[in-house]
Every structure is written in structure tokens, then in C-alpha cells.
Amino acid sequence: MLQCKNIIKNYYVSDMVIGALKGIDLSFRENEFVSILGPSGCGKTTLLNIIGGLDRYTEGDLIIRERSTKSYKDHDWDSYRNHSIGFVFQNYNLIQHQTILENVELALTLSGISKSERVRRAKEALSQVGLEDQIKKRPNQLSGGQMQRVAIARALVNHPDILLADEPTGALDSDTSTQIMDILKEIAKSKLVIMVTHNSEIANKYSNRIIKLLDGKVINDSNPYIDEKEIKNNNLKPEKVKNKIKEKTSMSFLTALVLSFKNLTTKKTRTLLTAFAGSIGIIGIALVLSLSTGFQRYVDKMQADTLSSYPLIIDSSTIDYNSFLQMNRPDNMEAYPVDNQIYVNNVMEQIASLRVTNTLSNEYITNAIETIDPSLYYDIKIKNDVKVNIFKEQDAGNYLKTPSSYGSGPYNMKIWQELLENDDFIKSQYDLLAGNWPTEKNQVVLVVDKYNQLSDFVLTGLGISDYEELDSNLEDDKVSISYESFIGMKYKLLYTNDLYYYDDINNKFVNNFNKYPIQGIEIGYFTNDISEAGIDLEISAILRPNTETAIGSITGALGYSKELSDEILNRSLGGDIFEASVLASWYYDKLEAEEYIDPFTNEVYVDVTNGETALEQFNTALTRLLGSNTVTEIEIYPLDFKAKDLIKNHLDEYNKVVVAEALEEYYIDNEINKEEATDEQKSEASLYAKAAGVYYTDVMELVVSSINTVISAIQYVLIAFTSISLVVSSIMIGIITYVSVLERTKEIGILRSIGARKKDISRVFNAETLIIGGFAGFLGVTVTLLLNIPINIILANLVEINNISNLLILHAVTLILISMTLTLIAGIIPSRIAAKKDPVEALRSE
Known about the structure:
Number of strands: 32
CATH topology of the largest domain: Rossmann fold
Structural class: alpha+beta
Radius of gyration: 47 Å
Largest sheet: 10 strands, mixed
Shape: elongated
CATH architecture of the largest domain: 3-Layer(aba) Sandwich
């Protein structure tokens, strides 16, 4: 079964060679009790360690079941120790932070046996040594004899072929020694038991074979075993024989985690302090991310709000702002010239070319606008020349014609405004104070500012000047009106056709609304009954910008739906409903007869007045009064500035294509060779091609465009600084892990003795660093979440921004993973050191 063939073991100290074993030749039976006797230093334990695979022989061979071990690799020896060898040590070598049951079960864990089977066999082995009632205790709760029994149970649990006992009774009293020896003698009936001892009395009493060593040599063998097969195979070349041991040992990562976790729980204070130190860097980075995320979210919201008031605008008539920005930066001139010359910048000539007329055709809308990625914008509003005529009944049939806005230029204040179609975007900007969100086209919303205010200009324009008629308070020189007074308030929207009727006698259209101004406001009465005309509008909701909205998408006081705009447009010049009106019949009759007459004065237009032909004047007058379904403006509401740039790139690419096509078309139509064209021809071609393009206006081009870059730069700088503390704490955890390696050296030896591989030892300490890193990350995230509470309170008071410090779940999880990764990296060197420790030396450590 087991043969030692000329085993030589040398130790090398500097240039000295110390021979521990000097040619040991021994063979062992499959079941016998062998005692190895000899004075200290004679090589007894060294021989036992070589037989057990803990130590390597220098020369010779160890034959196991007729197979040489010369070709054994590390994993072969690990498997051999786990499946074929059981160790019983003088000082028990139990893992103190494991229970008795877990100590015994550990060898089975390395064998890959299921949890239920491990527990069953471990309990069976403990029952065999009389400790079935002690399974939940830890080693320090047992007597010496009980601990040695646990060691025997651990050695037997995997059903090894060989049991090796190194001074198993050396630390026990005589009565306990007898009990242990009785157990070993019983085991020897079915297994090979090899015991190293100084006690010749015990050896003579219990052993059936005694081997005496002196100075590394066998000097006596009381019952030698000679196998005839061994004699026949004396010329065997063992290095060419394949290894018989095929079972693999492997410690699962879960087992490594459990071992490390239980070890850390025995050092709670140190573990907590280490984790807290490791969390300092995490806290710093988490706070930076919390603040930068909050600020970025605020900036994104501000950008969305700003762009909701200043969208990309494509107007039918506009200025080429790209060319305008380049006017003072010519490409062919050097900045800060050194010559003594002043150059003329032809600004007047350039300004004349800046005015462009955009043709907002259906083709452009289809190919350029509708092909924009929907994920880049909240809404796209295609505007027509719609005339919105809204009236508020005052008293006794008197009506107020509400203006769509007050003032002009920078002092323009909108009153009535079409809402964006993206309801979710509007709801993200506004709180509903009263009423219900509109669901019908005749429902409109009233918008107040963050102070719940409406200006008196707006109220007067909306026909609300007599506050006493409403549910109002007049106290402290302040007027307040209840929400209920506004909810359900009625307005009348009239189509342009309803504003006129045809006077058959005078052959002209007469204004149905007789106006008389009061304080600059048009108030009057209708000649004809309008009770059934138009649409009755109703205020259904009162909205207010929420705390996170700086500039909302509704800049007017009353907002109506796109559906209502379409309805009005359908009744305007060119709309389907308009076609059936009296005015339309009159209009088409005049066109057919080429009678270009002012419909409201019955006067004939003079041809070419103010640069317009009679026909152009005729159409202009009707369009001015009725509106048109021709697209006059397109507004694009990007998500943010990045999305805005992508949309602009998309529109620019479209322009490049159509301008290039127009340029080629110009040269072909004019039969001009592009290569031979004169400068004048090239200039004319360029102007012709440019007219084919469609140009947008970006009001917010330079406003807050660099905020994202500033925030990102600050974020990176702060993270870089705080990362230093994270790296330092990781290095400290690596040092703590190395201290743990030194503290657990004995445990390393125990694990190696039961078959743990080097990589299993590394796994144990890697698991420890992962636990500490994970705990440090979790602690850092938790502390950050707690710190965010006072930080948000302070910032809310200082800058009036709520919840600015906010740690995202993704960032929290990422930081925990980073903490675990860094501590794992920091623990690589200590875990490698642990894996490379000599198991024999490790077992001797205390």
C-alpha cells in the first residue's frame, strides 16, 4: 500500500546541508498500528510529514498503491492529503472560530460533498469519538481530550486510507491518553495508523509494529513488511507512471467567505475600524457624486426649462446667425498682425447677405424635421399663421377682445399661448393647484407665477377688472382671488369668418364687432348674434411652476391645446372648413375674374403699390385677417444642450445636401463649367445655393453652454483628490490583510493538511478583503446618505435649491464594487504570501 524507497530529506541553511532523513526504506501494510520511536531531532516528524504529503523528499520515492509520486504536481498532493490521509496533531490544530461540527466538516467541503451529506458524515464521525452532543461548541469550550477527539473525527470523516498521528497524547493526562489510544487502536483494525511518539510504553502497549529512528536512519523494525510485488517491480520507472489520484479538491468561494467572515467576527472592533478607514475615500467620492449629480440634474432641468422658452427656431424669415458670428473672424486673416496696416471689414455688405428667407415646405418638414431622433427633443411645434380671436363677455352683450400679448420686443408679455403637445414635459414643470388637467380642446389652463401672482395687465386683458364681482379679499393693500373664481371661467373663441358678414348692398364685408376702446382695450358689442358661433372655452386648471422649474414652457397666462389651433387653422384661408364659407366663394370668384378688390372697402387695388402687385395685395389682406395654413415657423424643444447640438448637426447635414444639390443645379441650368467659372459667377452660384438652405436661430447658443464642462471638470478634480484617500485606505487594508495572514498562519497549515490547494488559501484571504471592502463601501454609502440630509438642508437655505445632494443607486452600487475591487487588489500580495507558506512551518507557528 505505502512504500518509502530510499527517502532522503535535506535542509539547506546558507551553504550548509542538514540531512534529516538518510535513506529510509520502509513498506507498510494496509491495516496496522505502526509507532515510530526515536529521540528529538531524529527525523520522526519529518518522515510523517513526507508520508502525509506536507513535505517533499529530496531524493528517493514514495510509492502509493504501487504508483510513484515523483510525477505528482501540487494538486495531486492536495488531493492525496484530502482523500487518502488523515492527520492527528499533538496540539489538535483546530480552527478556533469554527464550531466543532464545522471543523470536522471542513475536509468534506474540499471534497465537493453536498451540505446535507457533509453534516451527516461529520455528526457520524463525532459520534464515533463520543462527541455527538458537543457539535455546536467551539474548540475553546472543550477539554484537551475532547479537542483531540475532534481532531481524530476530522481525520476520519473523509474515510482516509492512512491515519497519521504526531504525538497524539503528548499534551494529555494519562487517563485521557488511554482513551485516545483505544480509539486509535480500534481504527488500526481497518486502516493504516502511523504514530510518532516519545512514549515507548504506549508504543509497546498499543502498536503491533515499532520502528526506531536515530539520526535520520531506521535502526530497528519490529515487524517489517516485504511485498513480493515490490521486489518484482524493483526496476519500475516511476516518473512515467500516471498518477492514480484523480479526485480533485476545491474550496468553494462560499466556504472561503464563511471562513473569513467568522474570523472577522472574532475581531469585531478591528474589522469595524478597518472598514471605517476604508470608507473615508468612498464617503469623499460619494459626496462629490451626490453633489455633482444634484447640480447636474438641476442644470439639466434648467437647460430643459430654458430651452422650453428659447427653443431652436426655424422662421420663414430670419438672420443667418452662423454667418453673423463669423463676420469679425475671417478665415484668411491672421489675428494680431504685426504690420502697420488697418484693414476694412465690409460689414454693410455682409449684413445685406445675412437676411434669409426659409421655404418651410412639406418636403423640408418630411425630410429634415420629421427625421430628427425623437429621443432628442420634448416636442416640435409647427406654427401656421393662425388668428386667435378670443372674447370675454362683460355685461349686457358687451365683449372684451382679449389680446394675445402686451407690449413688444423684450417687454412683450404673452397672454394666450399654444401649449406643447408633450403633456409629460408640462407636468414635469408645473404643479396642479386646482381643477383638472385639460382633456378636451375647449379646456384651457391658467398659469400663475411661483408667488401665485397674475399681473393686473393680464387680468385686465382677460376681462377681469372688477375684483369685487369675484371671491376676493382686499386686505393690506393686497388683492387675492380664490381658485374657485377662475375654475370654470368662460371665454368665447370666434373664427375669423364669424367676425364679418357680407353687406349685399355695398358689396363688401363688414366687421360684426363694433369696437370702442376703453383705456387702450378694445371693448364692443356684436351686431349679429354670436351665441352659437365659435367655441366656448373654459378654464379647467390652475398651474404653477414647481420648485425645480426656473423658466417654464408656458410663458403666457392662458394656454390652449394644439387641437384647438388645428381647428382654427382649418377655418382659415386654405383650410377645409373655410372652403365652404361665404368669404371663400367671394374670394375665388374674384380670383377667377381677376378682380383684385379690397374685401372690406370694395376698393380696387392699384397694381404695384409698395412693391406689391394687386394680386399680392389682395392675398396679403386676406391672409392678414384670416390667417393661413402655410407654415411660418418651426420650434424645436431639445432635451438639453447636448441634444440641441445633435439636432443642429442633423439640420446642418440636411442643409449641406440641399445646398450642394442647388449649386450643381445652378451650374447645369446656366451651362457654366464649374472649374472655369469666374468669381462673379461663383458668387452668384453661392447666393443661389444658399437660398435653397433652411436656417435656424439658436438664441441660447452661448448662454450656459459651458456649464456642463465646468461641472464635469470640478467633479473630476474633486474625485481625483478624494481617490487618493481611497487608494491609501486600500493600501492600509492590504497591510491589515498581511497582519491577518500572520495571525492565521496556523489555520493555513491546517487547511493545507486536509487538502486545501494554494489557490484555496489565496481564496480565503481574497474573500476576507472582499468582505472588508464590501463593508467599507456599504458603510461609506450609508454615511453619505446620512450626510446628505444636513447638506441638503444647508444648501436649501443658502441657494434655495431643494435636494441638491442626491446619491444615485447606480453610483452607490458602483462605489461598493469599486471598494471591493480595490481591497481585493490590495490583498493580492498578502494572499499570495499566504498561499506560498510552507504547510509544515505553518503548522509549527503559534
